[in-house]
Amino acid sequence: MKKESLDVRFLYGTCLGRFLLKALIRPGFSRWVEKYLDSGWSRWLVPVYIRKHGIYIGEYEKEQYTSFQDFFIRRRKPGFQSFDREGTHLMSPCDGFLSAYPIGEDSTYRIKHVEYRVEELLQSKGLARRFQGGTCLIFRLTPGNYHRYCYVDKGRKVAQRVIPGVLHCVRPLACEQYPVFVQNSREYSLLQTEHFGPVVQMEVGALLVGKIHNHANIQSFHRGEEKGYFKFGGSTIILLLEKDRVRLSQRVLKNMQCHRETKVRMGSCIAVGK
User: Active site includes 235?
Assistant: First the structure.
């Protein structure tokens, strides 16, 4: 297991840390942090963050930012982001690290050291049953990743749900103490896609993520069209696909066999339809 940073071990591994955590995970604290990150006072963080995470700033539209949040939700230049708009493969909705799992008949499996049920994640037994025997794809976004995300295929939105929750971080030590994906604030859309049938695309917030921003009033969409973005913090995207809908790429399958995540970029091929 990856060694945890001192602050995470303190928050989740000590009595005082867990006491402070009760305040930190409340939405009010996240809103206070968000106000600071939206202000010009936070601009000094931008060059520090760029150096720490090795971000190539020439890839993005702007060179100067009004606040740290303005930098965090930055957009790529068109030349640095391309999609196969006419393709039939399943594309990655974001940059990050992908883990893939089969969805068992009991809809319970282990992710980030936490056992959870699909119906708890969705808060819908009926919807969870539709994906039994299917595939669960989990995309972990790191701080240095691009935090905008897109639709994985052409289609239309059937339903959307917002599930409020407390905001825990997604680090392994945190997951040992709390059912992170169940408790976190999350939003998901049920999408009817052209090549993969019904797909659930879920965005999961984490500690200090004040908001998941999904663009409103989108009922039909195209491959690669921006779905939304995360504000500051570590975040996760989950895709649920029905049984026998996709065949994962060899690269993803090979990494699964070795219990490794697959590094992906928005738009890259991760599976093909069956």
Answer: yes
